[in-house]
Amino acid sequence: MIELFRDPEMARVGQYQSILEAEGIATFVRNETLSGTEVVIPAFYPALCVVDDKDYERAVAIIRSYEQEVPGSDEEIRCPQCGELSPGTFSECWNCQAALSAPAP
Ligand SMILES: [Zn+2]
User: Fold this and answer.
1) How big, in percent rounded to 5, are the helix, strand and coil portions of the chain?
2) 51 C-alpha to center of ligand 1: Å?
3) How far is CA 70 from CA 1, 65, 86, in A?
4) What residue segments make up the domains of the chain, in order of their start?
């Protein structure tokens, strides 16, 4: 199982989960039950994971193509470690899992 991305908003995680499930990719949401607590720290944000590691790259590609269809969310973050571009919603590089910082406004 590989974590795909995490987001403080469970609704968003759930949205991507249904997109991936519709593509036939088995997913799992980690920390789902912890959302809604008063103090939520990033380590416990709901996290969308792919169950089967070999689906990971396809899942990333699906989310990327989906992101490109949403106006205003087409910015990508270049990984400081390996130089690959990840969708702006990602907190970690899809390729090497290095931490990504948000793009400058
Ligand atoms: Zn990287």
Assistant:
1) 35, 20, 45
2) 21
3) 27, 9, 15
4) 2-73
Domain 2-73 indexed as CATH 3.30.70: yes
CA distance 36 to 86: 28
Q: Which tens digits make up the pLDDT trace of 5-30? A: 888 888 889 999 999 999 999 999 98
The alpha carbon of 80 and the centre of ligand 1 are apart by a number of angstroms equal to 7
Cα of 104 vs centre of ligand 1, distance in Å, is 18
pTM over 0.70? The answer is no
Give the confidence band of 104 by pLDDT, cuts at 50, 70, 90. Answer: very low
Would you say residue 32 has pLDDT above 50?
yes
For 54, which DSSP code? G
Task: State in Å: Cα 37 to ligand 1 middle.
Answer: 32
